[in-house]
Amino acid sequence: MDLQKVMADLEAKNPGQPEFLQAAEEVLESIKDFVDENPKYDDQKIVERLLEPERTIMFRVSWVDDNGEVQVNRGYRVEFNSAIGPYKGGLRFHPSVTLGGLKFLGFEQIFKNSLTTLPIGGGKGGSDFNPKGKSDNEIMRFCQAFMSELFRHIGPETDVPAGDIGVGGREIGYMFGMYKKLRNEYTGVLTGKGRNWGGSLIRPEATGFGNVYFAKEMLKTKGESFQGKTVAVSGFGNVAWGAVMKATELGAKVVTISGPDGYIYDPNGISTEEKFNYMLELRATNNDVVAPYAEEFEGAQFFAGKKPWEQKVDIALPCAIQNELNLDDAKALVSNGVICVSEGANMPTTPEAVEHFLENKILFGPGKAANAGGVAVSGLEMSQNSMKLSWSREEVDAKLHQIMESIHAACAQYGTEGDFCNYVKGANVAGFIKVADAMIDQGVV
After folding, report:
1. Spelled out in words, what is the top-level CATH class assigned to the domain 52-188?
2. What are the residue boundaries of the structural domains of the chain, listed by start?
3. Domain 206-361 is classified in which CATH homologous superfamily?
4. pLDDT tens, 392-445?
5. pTM metric for this prediction
6. Which residues are catalytic?
7. Which end of the chain is flanked by fewer CB atoms within 10 Å, N or C?
């Protein structure tokens, strides 16, 4: 594979889409040797076909706000790859949403979904709509307008969206209601549904739980565990919330959470039911701030405009947003003795920071493997919907744990180099093989 040519062609085709190009380059660099050793992939132009979405849908979303004024947003759905199953991936409502950003997320989703061992393809979607400061009625009207176009392109055997940033249970409910009305059918077309109408237990916590389970498996290879360890978590949404709870359950002390305004350092540990619930209250305000935590709990400090990676911790779990952990942050973590970094968000670590972790033989779990727990439980929700039944919390958690163990095993199989495992390479190669072989089996389509 001529990596330079592939990347040059990709850049020419996708100008102004840096996140997508970054994600593609990271994958291609790590699978290049494997592809070169197996010429069938080059002969079938699998890499070139993987880099092009099967379908990209972009549409206008017009809705009326509470003042009676017409608002116009842009909606997207990138249906990237369906070689191993229906498209699966979240919907993101945030003013930063662009086609390039969604292509990055959809491309990552192909490999993440492949690693789960579940029969689901990769996709992503959303809108530049900003839920912040909107009333429930405005959000309902927007969601209904959004679904009045999206419904044409999705279905339980075609494309099954989930929630993401800005899309929680409320938004999923409004969209599901409109889909049901337009289609005149009750099917599991969205995941993240309410518990009493088809949703799965532990879905909100699943990404954070899965991230901790993956880190647990990495630590086990070095004879370590979460017990007695100090942990830094970034973010304060569902992923961070799940990670904080599961790390605490496994015996660690989580000392940080963060938001766009800065980070909280709580030396007493974010370790009680009261503190877990307060994280949810902060998120529910839609104010995107964590500063009030320091006023609520004695001993906690707020560091305005800073990131938590300056604290001395054993384990770091970046659970906020892409490229939030840069080279300087990585150097600070390494010099402070961090032993494990596991990505709860999508591509939260810059390429230079990843390289620094790998050079220093730090256990590093890339997002497409470490944060696959969310989509894994979405897949389990699809199974429950298909079978018209629901599993207990313990059953779902056990299945999630098993899936994360399987993902770790696949990454270790293809990423182990001597006494060190390059999980980035392992995740990319393991995810690539399953999808690429399915594409070859299905012909040039």
Report:
1. alpha beta
2. 52-188, 206-361
3. NAD(P)-binding Rossmann-like Domain (3.40.50.720)
4. 989 999 999 999 999 999 999 999 988 899 999 999 999 999 999 999 999 999
5. 0.89
6. 124
7. C
